[in-house]
Amino acid sequence: MLDLGTSFLASVSRDPRALAIVDGDTRLTYAEWYAVISATVAGLDRLGLKPGDHLVTVLQNRLEAATLHWACQFAGIVITPINWRARPDEIDFAVADAEACAIAYEPVSAESLRASEGPGRIPRIAVGMASNPGETAFSDLATGESAPAKPRTDAEAISLMLYTSGTTAKPKGVPRQHRAERAAALAHVAQNLYGRAERTLGVMPLYHTMGVRSLLAMSLIGGTFVCLPRFDVASALRLIASERITNLYLVPTLYHDLVHHPDFPTTDTGSVRKLGFAGAPMTDGLLARLTEAFRPDLFVNHYGSSEVYTFTVNHEAAAKPGSAGRAGLNTMVRIVPLTGAPDATAAPGEEGEIAVIASGDEAFEGYWRRPEATAKAFREGWYFTGDTGFADADGDIFVTGRVDDMIITGGENVSPVEIESRLSLHPAVSEVAVVGLRDERWGRIVAAFVKRSGGVDAAALDAHCRAGGLPSHKLPRRYVFVDEIPKSPVGKLLRRQLVAGEYVAETPPETPIKGPAAA
């Protein structure tokens, strides 16, 4: 397997005049971008960075962020991107945990960085702004004549380190080798049937595995990465039309916002022929809406993680709603019973924990300096994902939630995903999230938090669920109507905030169900 620096050189050799990246008015071919990347490598040398050092970046999706990503691949530096919304303590944690040797930031992250303590002890790169004393402006880092960059590492070296979301504890570093990153990018091209010169909307953040995959995949096919620093629906629609975007790879929340925006009906989205989603399950209602809106040639549900990019792929997401499909090109998947030995396999239809083979080409080798977390995740040669699911009679995988999200009510295991999908099909439901709330009698009760798009009440939603065949123990016992469903920066539902009461409710805030469902 090639290292990523050599991989990019191959891209320049194949497609030197192809459009590689767009950021506002800046448009660079592969040959032009390589010159900028080479100058950036020389600039990193002047800062004293060496192969194996970590460079933390606190950047949005912009030309400089993508350039630093590729420059690190040539220089053997481990790029370590974190959320540009990170708080000062989160920046301090990343700098200390990664033992970072430099950090790059921009105006949007400047306030948090200057309030943090760790970055003051290492070189700082100011992007898109004037540098302060002791800092280096990116514009100075990446200018001037320099020799064409040559790769300084091999495929076994660490390419980047992503951090998990850290929803229940401190984030875990996920170091990934060049070979795993390139294998994942190749699989992404194949599994999404990308052709030469595709154009993708580069909006999934480069601190997230989906954003990195979009960046690398485009380089393999002479494609174009069109930067969108942060998700703004109107801007996304303008870029889709003006740049003739051919494929979208987004989390379900962003798709929801696109098709519900008032500009969507008048925007020319005809160039988009391939849709892909990951990061969270997509409700049946949204699947149907997207299929009708885009009429795509391909609609892919990609299920994976930062640790192992691909678990499973469903190439006909709308044809079998809820199915994550079957194992990707570089892996094997099985369902392990929730109570049983780690080498056991659940029967068809039996819910368990989803595990993937640990020796797959896209897999990481363990968490950064967290041996206890690595030991918990790896068992008998398999990586245990923490996700629950089952395989149907056809062998297709259905993800039902997280082990920690499972609602145990009256001794019954209830997955929130099935209930969310049913509720999403009601025309007056804009968004929905289902969680378990503490209850003295039942232990937990099923509660549905609903953002309404029309007139509907709890009784109507209860009737809708019953009509859809939900058994009585899965029916929500409480409906809470909210203004917004809390989500992470990349669009994942933050169920823990709903459980903790961290939401903005409508008035009246909640409507309990009366009758058999609440008995």
UniProtKB/TrEMBL annotation:
Cross-referenced InterPro entries: AMP-bd_C, AMP-bd_C_sf, AMP-dep_synth/lig_dom, ANL_N_sf, ATP-dep_AMP-bd_enzyme
Annotated ranges, domain AMP-dependent synthetase/ligase: 11-368
MF GO annotations: acid-thiol ligase activity
A Pfam family it matches: AMP-binding_C
Domain AMP-binding enzyme C-terminal: 418-492
SUPFAM superfamilies the UniProt entry points to: Acetyl-CoA synthetase-like (SSF56801)
Name of the protein this chain belongs to: AMP-binding protein
Source organism of this protein record: Methylobacterium soli
